C-alpha cells in the first residue's frame, strides 16, 4: 500500500470512501495503520478519552504535540492529522501559523481547525504557508459553551444554510477535506454535494465521502458512553476488566508466576 497523502485524500472524492480513526499513542497508531485506515487523527478528544476531562477545551498545545509525536512513530501508511487545541489558533493568524508549524515538526502532515467562515482567513494563511488544513464544522466541541452543550447543529433551514456557507468558505480558503460532525443527514448530504473536496462524517449520516470515529468508542472501552452515532465493534471494557481480574486471582492464588514465567541459575 502506498503512503496516503493530502493530494490523495483530496482526489478521493467520488472514487474512494475515506476511513479515519483517532489515535493518541504509538501502539494504537501502529495497529490502526497496519489495518489500512486512511487517516489517523490525533484528536483533542484525548482530553476526554485519555485525560478524563469533561470537554476538549482544557487540552494544551504541549499535550497535543506529545501525542502527535508518539503517534507519528507508529505510522507508515496513513495520513497523520492533528487537532489544533482551543486557543492555539483563535488568538491571531501569526499564533496559528506558529502553532501549526510545531505540529508539522512533530510529524503531523496536516492540522485540523474547528469553525467555518470565522476561521477562513486563518486557513487561507496556513495553506499559503504550506500547511495543509482539514476543516471541521457542525458540532464543534471547542464551542460547546456557545452551543449549550453537545447538540446537533443545522436542524433549521437557516442554520443548515449557515453550515453550507461555512463549508464553501472553508473550501475557498483551501482545506483539503472537511469533518462534518453532529448534523442531520440531509444537511451533510447537501454539503457533500455542494463542495468539491471530501467530507468526513461523524454523526452526520450515510452520505459523506468518508467516516471518522474515536478509537476507544468503536472498541467499547467506556461502557458509560453510548451515543447513537457510534457503533461498538468490540466490548474491550469487559475483556480488559476480565483479564485484570484473572491476573489478580492468579497472583493471589499463586498460579502466577508459573514455572514457564521464571528464570533459574544455569548449571556450571
What does this entry look like structurally?
Helices cover 40% and strands 13% of the residues. With 268 residues, it is α/β, with parallel strands linked by helices. Strands 1-2-3-4-5-6-7-8 form an 8-stranded parallel β-barrel, surrounded by 6 helices. Helix 2 packs across helix 4, helix 5 crosses helix 6 and helix 8 runs parallel beside helix 9. The relative contact order is 0.12.
The major sheet is characterized as:
8 strands, parallel, barrel
**The CATH fourth-level homologous superfamily:** Phosphoenolpyruvate-binding domains
Strand content: 5-15%
Please name the CATH topology. TIM Barrel
Overall form = globular
Rg, rounded, reads 21 Å
Q: What's the N-to-C terminus distance?
A: 52 Å
SS-based class: alpha/beta
What's the pLDDT, averaged over the residues? 97
Q: Within the largest sheet, what's the order of strands?
A: 1-2-3-4-5-6-7-8
Overall number of strands: 8
Number of helices: 11
Identify the notable features of this structure and list them briefly.
single chain; 268 residues; alpha/beta; TIM Barrel; eight-stranded parallel β-barrel; 40% helix; 13% strand; globular
Give the structure's gist in a few sentences.
By secondary structure, this protein is α/β, with parallel strands linked by helices.
Amino acid at each position: 500500500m502506498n503512503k496516503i497523502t493530502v493530494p490523495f485524500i483530496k482526489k478521493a472524492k467520488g472514487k474512494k470512501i475515506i476511513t479515519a480513526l483517532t489515535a493518541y499513542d504509538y501502539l494504537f497508531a501502529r495497529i490502526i495503520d497496519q489495518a489500512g485506515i486512511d487517516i489517523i487523527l490525533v484528536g483533542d478528544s484525548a482530553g476526554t478519552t485519555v485525560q478524563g476531562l469533561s470537554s476538549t477545551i482544557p487540552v494544551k498545545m504541549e499535550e497535543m504535540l506529545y501525542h502527535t509525536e508518539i503517534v507519528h512513530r507508529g505510522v507508515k501508511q496513513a495520513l497523520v492529522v492533528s487537532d489544533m487545541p482551543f486557543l492555539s489558533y483563535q488568538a491571531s493568524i501569526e499564533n496559528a501559523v506558529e502553532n501549526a508549524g510545531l505540529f508539522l515538526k512533530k510529524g503531523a502532515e496536516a492540522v485540523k481547525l474547528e469553525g467555518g467562515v470565522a476561521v477562513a482567513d486563518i486557513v487561507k494563511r496556513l495553506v499559503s504557508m504550506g500547511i495543509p488544513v482539514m476543516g471541521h464544522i457542525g458540532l464543534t466541541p471547542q464551542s460547546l459553551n456557545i452551543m449549550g452543550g453537545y447538540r446537533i447543529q443545522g436542524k433549521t433551514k437557516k442554520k443548515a444554510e449557515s453550515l453550507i456557507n461555512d463549508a464553501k468558505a472553508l473550501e475557498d480558503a483551501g482545506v483539503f477535506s472537511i469533518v462534518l460532525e453532529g448534523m442531520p443527514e440531509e444537511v451533510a448530504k447537501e454539503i457533500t454535494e455542494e463542495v468539491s473536496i471530501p467530507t468526513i462524517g461523524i454523526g452526520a449520516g450515510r452520505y459523506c465521502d468518508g467516516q471518522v470515529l474515536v478509537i476507544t468508542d468503536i472498541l467499547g472501552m467506556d461502557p458509560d458512553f453510548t451515543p447513537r452515532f457510534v457503533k461498538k465493534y468490540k466490548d474491550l471494557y469487559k475483556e480488559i476488566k476480565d483479564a485484570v481480574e484473572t491476573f489478580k486471582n492468579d497472583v493471589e492464588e499463586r498460579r502466577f508466576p508459573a514455572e514457564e514465567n521464571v528464570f533459574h541459575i544455569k548449571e556450571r
